[in-house]
Amino acid sequence: MDRIEKLKEFLAGNPNDSFVQHALALEYIKAGDDVKAQQLFEGILQREPTYVGSYYHLAKLFERNGDIDAATKWYEKGMAEAKSAGDNHAYNELRSAYEELIY
């Protein structure tokens, strides 16, 4: 069984598991399916906005696809959430990617 199928199997038992959804979204990116990855990341962040790691990957997805406005928006949301959580490592990662994009 490939990784995507295995992760889908895990989700069948717990469909709102953000960790598994995040992992599945990363696998979809590797497989070239940005649409499914985007849907998963956006679902995670709608349900659980404190899941800071998904902001970076969602923004990178938009950046890679040329949607700079959406990428900027998601980096900014992620930085705000990371700052609120006191997660300096995530904040700095998001800020670095954001600054690289806009400068």
Question: What does the model show?
Answer:
This protein is an all-alpha fold. It has one domain (3-102): Tetratricopeptide repeat domain (Serine Threonine Protein Phosphatase 5, Tetratricopeptide repeat), CATH 1.25.40. 81% of the residues lie in helices and 0% in strands. It has six helices and no strands. α3 packs antiparallel against α4, α4 (53-64) packs antiparallel against α5 (68-85) and α5 runs antiparallel to α6 (88-102). The longest helix has 18 residues, at 68-85.
The fraction of residues assigned to DSSP E strands is under 5%
CATH superfamily placement = Tetratricopeptide repeat domain
Tell me the domain tally. 1
The total of helices stands at 6
Gyration radius over CA: 14 Å
Strand and helix order: HHHHHH
Q: Helical percent range?
A: over 70%
**Secondary-structure arrangement, i.e. CATH architecture:** Alpha Horseshoe
Number of E-state strands: 0
CATH fold-level label: Serine Threonine Protein Phosphatase 5, Tetratricopeptide repeat
Quaternary state, please? single chain
CATH class: Mainly Alpha
> Could you say which structural class the secondary elements and strand pairing correspond to?
mainly alpha
